Amino acid sequence: SKVSVFHPFFQLSAAGSSPLLQRCPWRLCKLGGLSAEEPDNIHVLGTPAFPITISTHGDLVQSRCQELCAFLIPYILFLIIAGMPLFYMELALGQYNREGAATVWKICPVFKGVGYAVILIALYVGFYYNVIIAWSLYYLFSSFTFELPWTNCHNSWNSPNCTDPKLFNASVLGNGTKYSKYKLTPAAEFYERGVLHLHESRGIHDLGLPRWQLSLCLLVVVIILFFSLWKGVKTSGKVVWITATLPYVVLFVLLIHGITLPGAYNGINAYLHIDFRRLKEATVWIDAATQIFYSLGAGFGVLIAFASYNKFDNNCYRDALLTSTINCVTSFISGFAIFSILGYMAHEHKVKIEDVATEGAGLVFILYPEAISTLSGSTFWAVVFFIMLLTLGIDSSMGGMEAVITGLADDFHLLKQHRKLFTFGVSFGTFLLALFCITNGGIYVLTLLDTFAAGTSILFAVLMEAIGVSWFYGVDRFSEDIQQMMGFKPGLYWRLCWKFVSPAFLLFVVIVSIINFKPLTYDDYTFPLWANRIGWGIALSSMILVPAYIIYKFMNVRGTFKERLAYCITPENEHQLVAQGNVRQFKLQHWLTI
Predict the structure, then answer these.
(1) First vs last Cα of the chain: how many Å apart?
(2) Fewer CB atoms inside 10 A, N or C side of the chain?
(3) Per-residue model confidence as pLDDT tens digits over 238-263
């Protein structure tokens, strides 16, 4: 969720056996291990993620050309004070405790609801993330032609108003109309009319039936995911070699080719230009904050699940620094590939860069395909581009689904005993619910889920996670756990971020995101009030699990109020100390120690 970059998965220990002794460690080279810890993103993914606000946030792409480089400043700031520290925290948490997102909270039982919340969020993202991958597969199949289907207006899906893009220039558009908003090009009509059939829906209240072509593509995606996950690392370790490395090769090829195109320099110059006035806008800071978690994958339960299969003495500190740095550098470099294409398109149509930049999936599924169609050997470039999107998407989706599977299987031994059947159930369930997103009005459902399923809710979940580990479990005790694994304690900087800086930052972003909420829209369509209420219901359904489990846990523990509280906030392996009246959390020193 969105990736961002999800990678491999694991083989669970046999039911009833010791997780620490039986949990299958990574049997991949270091490259595979690192890629496995670079999560979400779809969003489509961490690769084109940076110059874009990714959705699962996966990567449903929302270009912010006009504020991108102003976005760079808060992005780097939040990466340093929140992204890396929380990335490190989740890796250490999973590696030390050898548990998934729910059962890892044996360190502070009352916070187990946080684990269920992130698992539910990852499941929500899986409902619609696979749809974006299915679009990529549909485009890939459509690319195996001598003439790409989005190059002309002579197709069955085209409207009478479809216009050859070669005729467009600044004078033709006129009246300040942006090229990206002009939805009558062959590429735009192929996406909205040929793929989505959006013209046959009047809104979210008028969905229609699932499209059989997209249903088949979605089924293929789910089958690939199932067979990549059902045996854990035995299969995923092989799959990840393709899904984790091929996108880098393709990105490099696209980058080299992109910067040689006419107008590419203007696009790159726009990419690197900083407008400091944008820093006054709250949306820039909120987008930067959410993008950090989508690109690094913190808060989705993925990192905890992946790290739980590391060797106990693995240097997760090095992994956190190296992986998060590679992720963000890759995202930054991908911006050159994207903006070179934007510059090229602006040059071709003689318009400004900001007039070409588009929002939503338009960058990936309209503008980029249109640019590719103008190149020599366009079929080859289209196949290469959509193979990259497909592998990125599958890579991320595998990680999100593994977070769900590992998190619940570790908590319920029956599911662990029947992992293959459970994996099939999760895969089939996401397929069925994703069918709502491939109807004629499915893009409205997808937009609703993308906005609410993993927005404010994921920030809230990470906030509660930081509070649970740093304050209730204790930074000092957490640091001792890390020392036990790697032989050294985290430095003062990390401890300060975990206890004060990161939680304060997260609390600020959660509050601002709620205050600055605006009714949901898609292009010119404004979602009705009831749809926004459903969206907030989806967001609250995961967040409510945190206080709900606190109440549940407190009510199911016997004893006085003080004894119940003690059992709820004390690690399970220290419950014998509660009976002796020795509760660390009842001492002031516990809360003041860093």
Answers:
(1) 32
(2) C
(3) 666 777 777 888 888 888 989 999 99
Task: Report d(CA 459, CA 531) in Å as an integer.
Answer: 22
* Dihedral over alpha carbons 60, 192, 64, 524 (to 10 degrees): -120
Q: Can you give the three-state secondary structure of 150-192, one letter per residue?
A: CCCCCCCCCCCCCCCHHHCCHHHHCCCCCHHHCCCCHHHHHHH
**Please, are residues 440 and 432 in contact by the beta-carbon 8 Å criterion?**
no
pLDDT tens for each residue of 300-342: 888 998 898 889 999 999 999 998 888 888 888 888 888 898 8
Closest CA to 590 of 448, 465, 477: 477
The answer to whether the annotation marks 303 as part of a ligand binding site is no
- Residue 196 vs residues 57, 361, 537: alpha-carbon distances, Å: 19, 12, 26
- Residue 515: exposure state from Cβ atoms within 10 A (0-12, 13-18, ≥19): exposed
295 is in an annotated binding site: yes
- pTM value? 0.86
Q: How far is it, in rounded angstroms, from Cα 263 to Cα 508?
A: 40
What's the average model confidence in pLDDT over 199-208?
A: 95
Q: Residue 407 and residue 545: Cα distance in Å, rounded?
A: 15
Q: pLDDT tens digit string along 526-562? A: 999 999 999 999 999 999 999 999 999 999 998 899 9
**Using the 8-state DSSP alphabet, how is residue 58 labeled?**
T
CA pair distance 285, 506, nearest whole angstrom: 12
pLDDT at 237: 58
What is each CA distance from 276 to 269, 359, 593, in whole angstroms? 16, 22, 39
Please calculate the CA angle 498-499-502 and round it to the nearest 5 degrees.
55
Task: Write the pLDDT tens digit of every residue in 444-459.
Answer: 999 999 999 988 898 8
